[in-house]
């Protein structure tokens, strides 16, 4: 008995001793949060700088994709230098990240670190996370620049060959017509010879296609305005002033959105913030300065996205998906599709528009028509699954929560979408029929001028989209 007591006593002392030493070690969570603060003090790595940088690079990429004279844009903005400089800075910080972590951890050398390797891994992940989007964006920019070099190279080749081929053509026509005069009745067929230039003929073909690809596709919502597959939401119903006058939300888009958040409903205690981007079309009414916008296809983020209460990062992969989908939609429909909306959730936090939401909005907006971009914020844990619609006002400021006069309900939208889907499935719609000029008149409030501006502003916004003022 005494022995047992003694043993207990011994174990007690030992474990107490152990506890004391382990309490001295610094917990990883403490170090991680100190490290986050630390990188905020580094001008290059702090969040604001990274966001500005990312916005800047994305804007260049966007412009390059929509610009008619890319070479001039590259020269004007000294983009090659810019890219080299940015890549240099990024590389510098990436190469020095081990040293930076070593330096930072020195301060804990005396106390010891709870689980040093795990801690180092977390700090490295934080750094990679901070620079990851920048790296993706720079790669995108580099790709655009390389594309351009290829294109301008083709362009110069092209002109030389065009002249050579033209001269050859004239010679051949002359020769044939001369011989035709000698042998009456031979019809000159000048075509086959120039294509003997094989690859030259091909390069010319490629360039022509490339050039048409940069031209804006048809901007129209005519097939949507009276289409029962689209939910109409007038801005006047949810706020006093908005640059977007009306949204047309496709039933399948609502269903996808609802399904995306279905896991939150099933498991409310473990609801996670989540988001996506929405592609659609837009039309600008030049007279009123208002936009009509459709929300049609969701694009989900890749595995590099981070959604947390105070961190909202869609990652780089979704950008590639968005570009891919936009290209596909434009090719298939011959319509000008763009990123018209983005969505994210605030499960249980209520609907509002935070500062980080604002910075995402600023990064995603269109370079020449920034005001049509719309944001939906969903609180999945309210009974009706509240949806707030945030739009820009015409002065370019975004409506805040206080300016919203109405919340929508994802549940009610979903019920509508299901009904609408059943009805439209009964009468199958021709998939995206840009040629049908049907439904020219919009109902009650929207006035016929809407549909007339649809076509009249097409050219105006076409032109405007090429005019990028670097502000
Ligand atoms: Zn938010």
Shape: flat
> How many separate structural domains?
2
Mean pLDDT figure: 77
Assign the CATH class of the largest domain: Alpha Beta
Indicate the CATH topology of the largest domain.
Cytidine Deaminase, domain 2
Give the CATH superfamily of the largest domain. Cytidine Deaminase, domain 2
Lateral strand order in the biggest sheet: 6-3-9-10-11-12
Q: Helical stretch count?
A: 15
Beta-strand percent range: 5-15%
Q: What is the strand tally?
A: 12
pLDDT < 50 stretches: 5-22, 183-214, 430-471
* Alpha-carbon Rg, integer: 30 Å
Query: Which class do the helix and strand fractions yield?
Result: alpha+beta
User: What helical percentage do the residues reach?
Assistant: 40-55%
The gist of it:
This protein is of the alpha+beta class. Helix content is about 55%, strand content about 10%. The protein has helices at about 1-25, 30-40, 45-65, 70-75, 80-95, 95-105, 115-180, 200-215, 220-225, 250-260, 260-265, 315-335, 355-365, 410-425, 445-465, and strands spanning about 230-235, 245-250, 275-280, 280-285, 290-295, 295-300, 305-310, 310-315, 340-345, 375-380, 385-390, 410.
Describe this structure in words.
- The protein has 471 residues and is α+β, with helices and mostly antiparallel strands.
- The protein has two domains: 2-155; 222-465, Cytidine Deaminase, domain 2 (3-Layer(aba) Sandwich), CATH 3.40.140.10.
- It contains 15 helices and twelve strands.
- Strands 6-3-9-10-11-12 form a six-stranded mixed sheet, with helices on both faces. Strands 1-2-5-4 form a four-stranded mixed sheet.
- The termini are far apart.
- The model is unreliable at 5-22, 183-214 and 430-471 (pLDDT under 50).
